[in-house]
Amino acid sequence: MKVIWGNEIVDRNKVTIDFEDRGYQFGDGVYEVISFYNRTYFCMEEHIDRFFSSAKKIEMRMPLSKSELKELITDLLNESEATDGYIYIQMTRGNASPRDHSYPSQDVVPLLTGSIAAAERDTDKLKKGIKTTLEEDIRWLRCDIKMISLLGNIMLKHEAHKKNADEAILHRGNIVTECSSSNVAMVKDGAIYTHPDGNLILPGITKIVWKACAEQLNIPVYERPFTTEELLEADEVFCSSTTKEVMPVNQIDDKVFELPESGSLIRLLQSCYEKKVVEQCGDLTN
Ligand SMILES: Cc1ncc(COP(=O)(O)O)c(C=O)c1O
User: Fold this and answer.
1) Domain for residue 205, yes or no?
2) What separation in Å is there between the alpha carbon of 88 and the centre of ligand 1?
3) Is residue 5 classed as helix, strand or coil in its secondary structure?
4) CATH number of the structural domain spanning residue 53
5) Can you say whether residue 164 is alpha, beta or left, with left for phi > 0 and alpha for psi between -120 and 50 degrees?
6) Is 146 annotated in the active site?
7) Interval 15-39: pLDDT, tens
8) Which ligand 1 atom sits closest to the C-alpha of 201?
């Protein structure tokens, strides 16, 4: 298997990463997940822009340009045999010893790694939806940075898993923010509500796509905070992410939501999302 390691494509078993790497020591780094369909990346520009923007927010210099990164990830996809799946890329602040919390000098070279995983779309879940739980959002106050230190997110996802749910819907006090690994939106009386971008949520790329769909379909979208009470009274609820796409929620704790019907807003967004994938990547295989 080939992977990206420090700006090159190498065999997976050639990779050695020093234990003083700041990603390992401090979780000091940023990452992206980009899906590909038919061996073509979906929304690559948007993901690369967010990767660079996350790095900028933590004052980490990028050792390569956006176009060099695009070329590298395209080359890695060409080396792989996967038809559909994801690429995971991450950049840590590099190897700086002795261990010190302070940012190292600018001549420490950040370390890029990247790998490809084949994955089929979960069409069953896209049809039937997922079960979720409500969890208090215990994370820090810079959730806009797509960073590799994900302990808060994974602890919250684990709480959901302990209750046999797929995803945790997070709230600060009674305000719904996002999910442990996706954004969340609710539908009420023909309009969509979702938390505004800012420091409390990750600005999702999938959200950009479904918002464009909503605009095309003349569905109003209100980006304003809403409460857990409003969420539980919603007509429909969905999560969105690169790996989940537009994913219906069929349960929040004990509250069960009916399967979205064929003309429902979730179904309209799902088919528009698929059309956008087909426009960029060609026909879907499943
Ligand atoms: C916490 C969180 N919010 C939102 C998202 C959705 O982002 P995107 O649509 O860019 O995948 C993710 C994706 O991993 C996430 O981890």
Assistant:
1) yes
2) 13
3) strand
4) 3.30.470.10
5) left
6) yes
7) 999 999 999 999 999 999 999 999 9
8) 3
